[in-house]
Amino acid sequence: MKILIINHRYFVSGGPERYLFNLKELLEQNKHVVIPFSVRYTQNEKSEYEKYFVPPVSNENEVYFKDQTWNPKSFFKTIERLFYSREVYQYLSTLLKDEKPDFAIVLHYSRKLSPSVVEALKDYNIPFVVRVSDFGMVCPNNMLIRENKICEKCISGNLWNSVRYKCVKNSYGASLIQYLAAQFHYLKGYYETIPLFLVPSKFTMEKLIQAGWDENKLIHFPTFVKDEIFLNGNEKKGKIVYIGRLDEEKGVLFFLHTIKLLQDKERNNEEIQYVIVGSGTPEFEKSLKEYSESNNLKNVLFLGKLSKPEIDKLIQESLLMVAPSLWYDNMPNSVLEALSMGLPVIASNHGSFPEIIEHYKTGLLFKAGDKKDFADKITLLLKDETLRNEISTNAKQFIEKKHSPKKHYETLMNICNKYFNLQ
């Protein structure tokens, strides 16, 4: 089959893009032709199909809103991409006419591409599915979190709460525009034209159903881990690792608070090194480092962004990983990859984590936002080597059974056959 994959970025900037390239490789290994469609950025991976990529709202080296050059043209295009973009429709239509894909998988399309993606696929009779990797369909800030606490007002009430509480960039204006765009999408019926939604987490499915979405259009479709990740660990070097975005909702500052608690309670083993991998806004990164320095946190190391081989090596060397997310994190790739290599994970007890971490069997869960409970779980695993080894074995077996490439591919092909009569 010719399979089109649509995403607003064509380089690895986070979990969805990691999934994109893993899926592309998996499909190509199974003799499918994979055609990407994205926004044209200088950071993109090279592709023979990049001539079809749509121009960005501003410059090609400006990926994120915080870096965007603002002028009347870029402002208009930003608003257009939130509501509906004729430009994106035309670029995608050209690709569809020239390449004639058999099937399409849509990842992130809102804000940078717009629902014109959905309309073009419908107009050209291309069977397609949309993968849901956040809560954007029921929450304008995508994360069901406000002031670093879980907030479900838009699920149980209506989206106007996002304006009332300035949920988008802490701005009434930005929140109002996002609200109006969402209402426009509902009014035009864009969501109703989507045949199926593939949802990595059962928890996310429950929240969508709670918000009124048709459960018959939602399919549980867990993320997979590449085969070559199933490796034996190297010699452990006393590291506790966090890997992910450096954002407050990911619990990075909370992790530092917990390290301080361990240090203050004299439970901080000086042989242990706390390694933080990832990047965020310069302001937030600076605040993390300033907190660490001002509180004299021992053995905290900020490594910034690392390559995939460097991350794999770090995982193999570490004693355990932490995933202290304050928001309902939606099955992070870094956690799945850590489990696949037998690295015990301590995670918040909400969101998708209880689906992949069985307490005391494939990892440990702590009460989300409770630094004392988090510190207790870290101390327990550091002291109990037998428990770490048991968790390591169980975690690897769990990933091989539930999140293998083979299972993922077979499930996707079954969906294509069952719902779209594609072989």
Describe the protein's architecture and organization.
This protein is of the alpha/beta class and 423 residues long. The protein has 2 domains: 2-131 and 194-224 and 404-420, Rossmann fold (3-Layer(aba) Sandwich); 227-402, Glycogen Phosphorylase B (Rossmann fold, 3-Layer(aba) Sandwich). Helix 3 (86-99) runs parallel beside helix 4 and helix 9 crosses helix 14 (371-383). It has 16 helices and 14 strands. It has helices at residues 15-29, 72-83, 86-99, 116-123, 153-156, 160-164, 172-188, 202-210, 252-264, 282-294, 308-317, 333-340, 353-356, 371-383, 385-402, 405-420, and strands at 2-6, 33-37, 103-106, 128-131, 145-146, 149-150, 197-199, 218-220, 239-243, 273-277, 300-304, 320-323, 345-348, 364-366. A 6-stranded parallel β-sheet has the order 2-1-3-4-7-8, sandwiched between helices.
Observed structural traits:
about 425 residues; alpha/beta; Rossmann fold; 2 domains; six-stranded parallel β-sheet
Which strand order do you get reading across the main beta sheet?
2-1-3-4-7-8
Main beta sheet: strand number and arrangement?
6 strands, parallel
Question: Strand-and-helix sequence, N→C?
Answer: EHEHHEHEEEHHHEHEEHEHEHEHEHEHHH
Radius of gyration over alpha carbons? 22 Å
Just give the CATH class of the largest domain: Alpha Beta
Low-confidence stretches: none
Number of domains: 2
SS element count, helices: 16
Mean pLDDT: 93
How many E-type strands? 14
Per CATH, which architecture of the largest domain? 3-Layer(aba) Sandwich
Provide the CATH topology of the largest domain: Rossmann fold
